[in-house]
Amino acid sequence: MASNNIVILGAGVTGLTTAYLLSKDASNSITVVAKHMPGDYDIEYCSPFAGANYQPFGKEGTPEAEWEKATWPALKELTEKYPEAGIHFQDTIVYNRKKDQQSAGGQWFSELVQKDPWYKDVVLGFREIPAGQLAEGIDNASTFKSVCINPAIYLPWLIGQSRKNGVVFKRGSFKHITDAAYVHHSGKKADLIVNCTGLSSKKLGGVRDDKLFPARGQVVVVRNDPGAMVTISGSDDGEDEIVYMMTRAAGGGTVIGGSYQKHNWESSPDPNLAVRIMKRAIALRPELVSKGQGIEGLDVIRHSVGLRPLREGGPRIEKDKVDGVAIVHNYGHGGFGYQASFGCAQTAVKLVNETLQQKDKAKL
């Protein structure tokens, strides 16, 4: 019988993965409350706009790398056993230009494009591409098999799995985090709140995390298939403009990007940036279009903008108490929310269990 009343704030990939893992314990009674839910497309809600894929960014030995490492087995298992989750394997090519390393995008991709990265023993079939096969200007490159996720399918799948385990989903928004303690579906005050509100934690009362800031990402979603998931360390168009592409599972289209514009809150697509994104993608992967075609050969589905929830010092996954209410935070994942989702959620679940055990001891 459920004995722990938990409210989870936020229904992005972080909140939903945390709910899914917590719901596997029958002693937890969980309500997920969120302003935005899967199916919504709003600039405040980052998860639907993500690629999304598994291309590790965390520096070796850091918590970020450990979270990514812990997430791979879960994504691999879902890809192999649960096709309805909307994830598929995809051949991946990563190119590195040393001259990009000091740019904003280059710094973000620096671990991904290393010659001998830690994740070579995690992903499938990692190998270096021989120098003799590299185009002029490319210093090193690698290829491996990874996964690409279709958020439009995967986020509802997480909801479905959680609902099977008794999780209740409700719409709601709050000015102060402690207000969420009173919306548990049982009618009782929650024993604990898990805060997965991403960039919204910057303005949420009781949290107001000034370390949070957006990294604006703009993409073009097309029907063309590049035949592989391809990334390069940077571009010559600007230090915060980057080049990548991936084809989402189950007809989700190909996402080509992009940008990594820190502290930029603009929600509307920039048409000039869109043109540069498309030109760069074709230059890097001519297979995107028929021979001899330029951007007119791209069959555009839509232009999109998402705000990655970056945080100085990295994600906040820790215990807290605000006005007597127990809280576990799990937010600030920047551009690696999906590929670190299970690792981060496992850490949050551990903190939830520790907090609830302490409360039980206090009652005794």
Automatic annotation (TrEMBL):
Binding site for FAD: T197
GO cellular component, one term: peroxisomal matrix
Cofactor(s) annotated in UniProt: FAD
GO biological process, one term: D-amino acid catabolic process
Residues the entry annotates as binding D-dopa: Q55, G335
EC number: 1.4.3.3
Domain of life (superkingdom): Eukaryota
GO MF terms, alphabetically ordered: D-amino-acid oxidase activity; FAD binding
Main location: other
Catalysis performed (reactions): a D-alpha-amino acid + O2 + H2O = a 2-oxocarboxylate + H2O2 + NH4(+)
Keyword vocabulary terms for this entry: FAD, Flavoprotein, Oxidoreductase, Peroxisome
Domain FAD dependent oxidoreductase: 6-350
SUPFAM superfamilies, A to Z: FAD-linked reductases, C-terminal domain, Nucleotide-binding domain
Alphabetical list of InterPro entries matching this protein: D-amino_acid_oxidase_CS (IPR006181), DAO (IPR023209), FAD-dep_OxRdtase (IPR006076)
UniProt subcellular location: Peroxisome matrix
Pfam families: DAO
Family to which the UniProt record says this protein belongs: Belongs to the DAMOX/DASOX family.
Name of the protein described by the UniProt record: D-amino-acid oxidase
Organism: Aspergillus wentii DTO 134E9
